[in-house]
Design brief:
The complex is a heterodimer of chains A (about 375) and B (about 190). Chain A has about 375 residues and is mostly helical. Chain A is about 50% helix and about 0% strand. Chain A contains 14 helices and 2 strands; from the N terminus they run H-H-H-H-E-H-H-H-E-H-H-H-H-H-H-H. Chain A has a two-stranded antiparallel ribbon with strand order 1-2. In chain A, helix 9 runs parallel beside helix 12. The termini of chain A are far apart. With about 190 residues, chain B is mainly α. Chain B is about 70% helix and about 0% strand. The longest helix of chain B has 23 residues. Chain B is elongated and about 50 Å long. Chains A and B meet through helix 1, helix 3, helix 4, helix 8 and helix 14 of A and helix 2, helix 3, helix 4, helix 5 and helix 6 of B.
Chain lengths: ~375, ~190
């Protein structure tokens, strides 16, 4: 074994991953080669750098309680009781530093995680509607500045509508928090024409199809947590316009998979010559999975940008799963794996996938 | 925490926790929180985000337990979640979107991080920490899993979702870059 071969295998040797035969040859070479021995010693030095400073016992002493608090808060009191650090923020509607708009925090599943990126758009949509409403105008059409889904998320639902925990298989919901003045996530709404009476003010996406054309035993969409949207810096940072194409379908899917009322709303998404990326939302909302798949493929072909594509491919996989075309979905997932190692959207979808596959949507128009 | 849980396997604890046993979940958190934190630290590159991601990891674990298959080993599953949470928090930070925790953390990172702050005062350790922080996340991950957690290539491959051969090449690149950044190496 010469120096070149030794150095190629040095990492594996150092890590004890070399086959025995190579190891013996390597040791023989190292014995007579100070240069390679020095390189080997360097590897140990590099490993030393990988250490992570420990935050200390005080940090660990609080860690579990903070986790429990966070779980309790996320479940809106429906999960395990708070560990009682007494530091929970009160459930107020208006964030101290926000524009008076309660924004919803995604709390579960890969689909809901996508909502995070819609937060700025939801805030913008709500703001637009607030202005229009109090300005004496009666909006009759979706504002073009806000994607309908996003505006839906900024809307409120009538008081008393029970919240349900959306995580499949998770702990049962036990109570509706009647004291928390929080806006709850409605099923996606259709247009801005109709507004829920009073409650929650002039919600952005008012008229909703509450009939729930879909969805078997799923619960309502996310219970909200609030977050200030006062800082809309994410809007540009996230390149929202570009990402929407991929994220919005995910949102639709969320409504589909989680919402009892269903996102039929999106059927009335803007009718202006919808791009494939826009129409896929509508098609998915109508459970026209095959058409939605075609639109999503067209959308993906249009938008090669990495972040949107990653999520868009994952959504495509879900559309295939919805059609029980699991092998095709597997192929798409393999593609995501290849293109985007550690894909968070994919990882989140993998967690949800068994549920999607177990409950393929079979409403009319599915195929 | 109940003492009888200390001896239980992770998978058993996960099953108990999925059934609503809070003590079992607490035991899981206690058992794995440091490894999760280290992984999140590697993914995020800083302590504050690592804290957020570590917390979020266990929230997500709790949320996902009902669908967790106890026939699968718990730790790789946990690592995967932790890593994704770390990347998620980091991406949020990059994008300017409020972090997963936002105002969620009970309190800001505080003097509990004293030891780390102390370390930062040490020039040598700072240099080493900077070198590690300067690595791309995917290289930091394999370095941490190998050098700190002592995982085999196969285990790292499983955790990172990459081929074992890629593990070796990433480790090799990571070490070279670390040594270069530290001003050492040959």
């Amino acid at each position: 074994m010469d120096c070149r071969e030794t150095q190629a295998l040095l990492t594996a040797f150092h890590d004890g991953e070399l086959p025995a035969a190579d190891r013996v040859r390597m040791e023989a070479h190292l014995h007579g080669c100070p240069e390679c021995r020095a390189r080997l010693a360097d590897l140990a030095l590099a490993d030393h750098a990988a250490g992570v400073p420990d935050p200390g016992p005080a940090y660990w002493g609080r860690f579990n309680a903070r986790v429990m608090d966070r779980i309790a808060r996320e479940a809106d009191g429906l999960g395990w009781p708070s560990a009682g650090t007494g530091r929970d923020a009160p459930d107020s509607v208006v964030p101290a530093d926000g524009p008076g708009v309660t924004v919803l925090r995604p709390k579960g599943g890969w689909l809901r995680q996508q909502l995070r990126y819609l937060v700025p758009a939801a805030a913008a949509a709500a703001l637009v509607v607030v202005v229009v409403h109090y300005g004496g105008m009666r909006p009759v059409a979706p504002t073009p500045t806000a994607p309908p889904v996003a505006s839906d998320r900024a809307a409120s639902v009538p008081a008393g509508q029970p919240m349900a925990k959306a995580e499949p298989g998770t702990r049962a919901t036990k109570k509706a928090d009647s004291t928390a003045v929080m806006r709850r996530v409605p099923p996606p709404a259709t247009t801005l024409k109709r507004s829920p009476d009073g409650q929650g003010g002039p919600g952005a996406g008012a008229g909703r199809d509450a009939t729930g054309s879909v969805a078997p035993a799923a619960a309502s969409p996310p219970v909200a947590e609030r977050r200030s949207t006062g800082e809309a810096k994410s809007a540009s940072g996230m390149n929202m316009a570009k990402d929407r194409s991929a994220e919005t379908p995910a949102e639709v899917s969320l409504g589909k998979t989680r919402s009892k009322a269903g996102p039929a709303s999106l059927a009335s998404a803007p009718t202006r010559s919808a791009s494939p990326c826009e129409s896929v939302r509508m098609l998915a909302a109508q459970e026209r999975w095959r058409d939605a798949e075609a639109a999503q493929r067209a959308c993906l072909a249009q938008d090669p940008s990495a972040p949107a594509r990653e999520k868009g491919l994952v959504f495509l996989a879900e559309l295939l799963d919805r059609q029980a075309r699991f092998a095709d979905a597997d192929a798409v997932i393999a593609e995501v794996d290849r293109l985007y190692p550690h894909s968070r959207p994919l990882d989140l979808y993998r967690q949800q996938r068994p549920m999607v596959q177990k409950q393929p949507m079979t409403a009319p128009g599915t195929r | 925490m109940r003492a009888d849980l200390d001896e239980e396997k992770d998978e058993r604890l996960a099953a108990l926790a999925a059934g609503g046993d809070r003590d079992a979940f607490d035991a899981l958190v206690t058992r794995h929180r440091q490894a999760v934190y280290r992984l999140c630290r590697s993914a995020t590159g800083n302590a504050a985000d690592a804290d957020d991601a570590a917390q979020e990891t266990f929230v997500r674990v709790h949320r996902s337990l009902p669908s967790y298959d106890t026939a699968r080993p718990f730790v790789p599953w946990l690592r995967k979640i932790a890593w994704n949470c770390g990347l998620s928090v980091r991406r949020d930070g990059n994008a300017g979107v409020p972090g997963v925790a936002g105002g969620d953390a009970p309190e800001a990172i505080d003097p509990a991080f004293g030891p780390e702050a102390e370390a930062a005062g040490n020039e040598e350790r700072r240099r080493v920490a900077d070198a590690m922080a300067g690595l791309p996340a995917e290289l930091r991950m394999v370095m941490m899993l190998r050098a700190v957690e002592g995982l085999s290539y196969a285990e790292i491959a499983l955790a990172a979702g990459i081929p074992a051969g890629t593990v070796m090449s990433r480790l090799s690149r990571a070490r070279s870059r670390l040594l270069a950044a530290m001003g050492g190496g040959s």
